[in-house]
Amino acid sequence: MTEPRCTPSDAPSRPSRPEPSLTEQAAASLRRLILLNLLAPGEVLNEPDLVTRLGMSRTPVREALKLLAGEGLVTLRRNRAALVARLDPADLVPLFELEAALESACAGLAAERMTEAELARLAGLQDVLEAARDDRDTYTRLNRQAHRLIVTAARSPAIAEAHGRAFARLERARNFALAADGRVAESLAEHRAILDALRARDPERARTLMHAHVARTQALLVARLAQGPC
């Protein structure tokens, strides 16, 4: 007996991803603005203003604020407008110290384990980063990719898992420090030096440069926060 052929119309279709709800869309938009510090730490989140800015009704905006409060990005206040959560050095400095330890270890391992294809990809990211220095959104996204590529190239799943948790929690603080005068150009130079150390297969230099790179971001954050409440 001949088995029936499966025609394209008979083939099982892959389930399509559901469209994000209005609340999820509002949360995504606000999250981006907060992570990029386009809504500054401590800034009042006036619902009518957000409704106008996002082009949505108050209900999804209000629910989005609750979601972001659960992520630590928004501070809800009883009978008062919500605030963008402030940045607290007491919470952030230990996380930066952890990131410096993890990323410097990864850089050292990557100098020995990185493939030529990964090096080429990192070099390509560096070129695009240089071109995107004036585009904050693109720059932060590519910067994140470059760091994660180095972590991946270390071939250490345990370190990568720990790094993923710490790195996500520091995204807003890192972007805040990046906004300091001259930091983008300085950061690009640091990235170039790290890339050169990786190409040279020099683990010690790669470790040292990466540790200094993260430590510099931490120092700039602390200095900016010392200028006033954020």
From TrEMBL:
Region of interest called Disordered, as start-end residue ranges on this chain: 1-22
A Pfam family matched in the record: FCD
Protein name per Swiss-Prot or TrEMBL: GntR family transcriptional regulator
PANTHER family linked: TRANSCRIPTIONAL REGULATOR, GNTR FAMILY, UXU OPERON TRANSCRIPTIONAL REGULATOR
Keyword line: DNA-binding, Transcription, Transcription regulation
Gene Ontology molecular-function annotations: DNA binding; DNA-binding transcription factor activity
Species of provenance: Methylobacterium platani
Domain HTH gntR-type: 20-87
